[in-house]
């Protein structure tokens, strides 16, 4: 046995907390604007608005911590803790994940300065507190650029609803003191409308357009995981020109398996295999996770490479399923060609034999 693997809830928790955090951050911004206008719910005291604003802000911080923590712990995307704090350093969608790091840093600055409010003084604290208004659009664009659900109807409804709420609150704030400093207020309204129009145009041409997964900076090895499994069959001439491992194939497998522990205490399984028969090549599978009985591991991450002897890393990807000594993997080439690989292995000591088959996923990943 190589490993036993079960589905992880971390990815879903990251997505869920991201959406809820955006909604609560929107509520915090809107409440902050209404608080400045002296609004109170149902004719209650102004302290109720202040307390509600503070409670929502604390919920934002708590959920943001969960959102960041689950994103780092999830093995699907290569996100490190440093990537969540240092903007634009990640391998995974660096610009859009970097905006998330900027939003996190702004929230951290708000928390720290709020704790030091008495030492800073009211005026200095209030000036820094304006960062909350900068945090919201940065977080919104981060969600559009990095989120998995940006194109779904429900997510569009949530994000556009949040945008409408903040724009309406900002407009009411600017119009509330009209006509005092009318030129400045009119300029701010015009700038806001222009920014909203530019954001809408970018959204249509970017996250909502086809091919955003690749253009956003997703690593090659993860692109195979989102490859569309279309039934269209490419022309015969195109099939002939493809390298052998990018066409349907079946091959015998022989090789070795090494088991051990990493420096961090994780169990590691390393399979070095050779394909022979109608198709030949080198297949390497590396699996890491918590050690399991029988010398295997409970998989938390994996890496798979496949290619001819001269280009052993022509295709790269990760395992999609693992049961005993059988597995499936999705692999992608540098030009976006995707292959679904299946292997059924027999392991005897350090020796491995079995069968492997590959099937291209119709069309390139765009």
Q: How would you sum up this structure, described in words?
A:
This protein is an alpha+beta fold and 366 residues long. Helices cover 47% and strands 25% of the residues. The protein has an 8-stranded antiparallel barrel with strand order 2-3-4-5-6-7-8-9. Strand 6 and strand 7 form a beta hairpin. The longest helix is centred in the N-terminal third of the chain and has 28 residues, at 46-73. It is elongated, with a radius of gyration of 26 Å.
Please summarize what this structure is.
The protein is α+β, with helices and mostly antiparallel strands.
What would you report as the Rg, rounded to the nearest angstrom? Answer: 26 Å
- Range of strand content: 15-25%
Helix content: 40-55%
Q: What gap, in angstroms, lies between the N and C termini?
A: 37 Å
**What is the residue-averaged pLDDT?**
84
Question: Which key features would you list for this structure?
Answer:
25% strand, eight-stranded antiparallel β-barrel, alpha+beta, single chain
Task: Show the helix and strand layout.
Layout: E1 3-4, H1 10-36, H2 46-73, H3 81-85, H4 94-115, H5 117-120, H6 122-129, H7 131-146, H8 153-176, H9 182-205, H10 212-215, H11 220-223, H12 236-241, E2 249-261, E3 267-276, E4 281-291, E5 297-307, E6 315-324, E7 326-332, E8 337-348, E9 351-364
Antiparallel strand pairs: 1-6, 2-3, 2-9, 3-4, 4-5, 5-6, 6-7, 7-8, 8-9
